[in-house]
Known about the structure:
single chain; mainly alpha; 8% strand
Amino acid sequence: MPATAATTAIAERPGFLIRRLHQIHVAIFAEECHGEVITPVQYSVMSAVAECKDADQTVLAHAVGLDRTNMAAVLDRLAKRGLIRRRVAPRDRRMKLASVTPAGEALMKRVAEAVDRAHARTVEALPEDERAAFIAALKTLVRANNALGRAPLKMG
Length: 156
């Protein structure tokens, strides 16, 4: 009988399981946001742009755990779609500051419930009383290992 992930040692490895859960979440996110062209990473970046108000790509990269190169690419795609605006920082012309446009705000409002459903569906197989503990465990692992990532989060 051929081996499957469920019958091999990788099924017990946290890295494999976390990656697989991420793949599943991305699929759920796309299904819930059907008709809207936005990825989980783009939504996270837009959320950070909205929250950080006129932040540069370094601040935003730390806010969502992306390296600066990938952050620049995501910001460029969002700007080309008219969802964010980028402007040169008045105090440092080397920096570009990002802000959400009215079109970006409208998209965020349109998908807000779908995004909430996607996150809920990702953990719905867990009993309700275990979900907070699951999130707490993930946060503990991220905090403990944050410095090891290519793009560490700035955590409060």
